Amino acid sequence: MLSKMSNGGILVVGSVALDSVETPFGARDNALGGSATYFSISAGFFNRVNIVATVGTDFPRRSMDLLRKRGIGLDGLTVDNGKTFRWKGRYRPDLNTVDTIYTHLNVFKTFDPRIPHELRSLRYVFLANIDPVLQAKVLASVRKPALVACDTMNYWIQSRKKELVALLKKVDMLLLNDSEARELSQDANLIRAARWIISRGPGIVVIKKGEHGALCVSRNSCFAAPAFPLTTLRDPTGAGDSFAGGMIGYLSRVKKHDDATIRKAIIYGSVMGSYCVEDFGVNRLLRLTPNEIQKRFQELRRLTSF
Amino acid sequence: MLSKMSNGGILVVGSVALDSVETPFGARDNALGGSATYFSISAGFFNRVNIVATVGTDFPRRSMDLLRKRGIGLDGLTVDNGKTFRWKGRYRPDLNTVDTIYTHLNVFKTFDPRIPHELRSLRYVFLANIDPVLQAKVLASVRKPALVACDTMNYWIQSRKKELVALLKKVDMLLLNDSEARELSQDANLIRAARWIISRGPGIVVIKKGEHGALCVSRNSCFAAPAFPLTTLRDPTGAGDSFAGGMIGYLSRVKKHDDATIRKAIIYGSVMGSYCVEDFGVNRLLRLTPNEIQKRFQELRRLTSF
Fold this sequence. Notes:
The structure is a homodimer.
Chain A: H1 2-8, E1 10-13, E2 17-23, E3 26-33, H2 35-43, E4 49-56, H3 61-69, E5 73-80, E6 85-91, E7 98-104, E8 124-127, H4 132-141, E9 147-151, H5 154-159, H6 161-168, E10 173-177, H7 178-185, H8 190-198, E11 204-208, E12 214-218, E13 222-225, H9 239-254, H10 259-276, H11 283-286, H12 290-304
Parallel strand pairs in A: 1-4, 1-8, 2-6, 4-5, 8-9, 9-10, 10-11
Antiparallel strand pairs in A: 2-3, 6-7, 11-12, 12-13
Helix pairs in contact in A: 2-9, 7-8, 9-10, 10-12
């Protein structure tokens, strides 16, 4: 039965962290965060997700229980001696820029992902934002993925470009933000940047533009997805991973990757990202309902139809 | 006959200028430009446009001939003693920012717009980006407009805020870019900024976001229009006025202002703005065909449908 569920579920490798953030609307200390966490809670509305990550012995039991109670698979989450990965950021007044106050890798410094045998047959894989060397290692353990999506960030583009470009060959979809796409391709034009990435492997490039939505470029299609026009925005942390969760979650549920399905998946991504930022940390996602997801999906359709 | 044509046409007050620009792709000196010029050539694809503006005795006869041959009404364009308004700008490498090298108002320093009698019954009015005091004066001369749209810029928001806010009461639609909307409303959130403006008069606010498209907010609706994803972008000058030209041109041709029509009008605006920036000055608009306009309208529909 586990094997059957696994085949239909998602594998994500990324961080499970304790985040401290300051925004103009308040501050939170050591709250549950990390790319794999946001992704899993978001994708969990669409399918079963299994996390590959590590936490320290200080990781709160209530956070572990929270993830478990949401049906997230934790067989690949190891508890290592040491402290959990911690990050602190301070957002500027416009919320578009965050200054990192500290990054303590802690147990991630020596993280050596091992994929439990029963997770290796999962068909949908999300390589959240960690060292491309670790992303490649996880991917090598997966048997026959139907779709591999990958995220990255400027830090890896600068420090691990060779490894990242090598990884791109094995990836179906790259998600990254606009400044990262420009930096990776060395081209300020986003369409040309996406084509540069496509020529390195991924058939689909999703460029996230925050409040300006997302652009999805493939060999034969280009799709511009809007961001939901929010008036309440408290904490942008996790928006990108929640976006990826909605997108990969939906794709893994319908098990199709044609252009029309990918467009819908991106809208679900936009929905999940927009809810995420309405409150601090994972708080808004935790009280989100499937009805609200459908409602905002329809609102995005009205927002763009002509 | 003139009266009949006038009733169906558009009145625009704004600048007719000689622009010098430098972009990473080249430079042009003293080329035909100005807000009324871009607007008229763009809107001219949809309806007859009549310009209210002033030029100096140095304004090239070939530019005057060019406007006339495109069917643009020049009865309200006066030739005053002195030099034509001149502006020079240098775009930064990403083309998103322009540094003004000089602005020589010249004949615009003493411009006192007088609307020829036969133009006062025009029903569609575009108050392009000039002093709000002049915009209000022109508007006061128009008898019974069906739709008054207005543009502005940071300079007037800073120096003529009181006059601008007073003008808003008489305006149906305000077009401005995102930074201007934020500055005018003193609110970083674009939706709240639009609502602030709506509470001052205009039922419709169109916020132009350059490469990120446009957002149209009214009391009951919100529409996010994409920008066409260009790979060739040579000179952003005039994009906003070409956008307004496509929008007002379409509205004046179909003579409806319901939500569905306004959405289509904004897409025509996006089409015209996107063509404008493909070449220097008005060059691309001059060789544009109606077929190309329809083609890109359909491409924008494909770009956003899901």
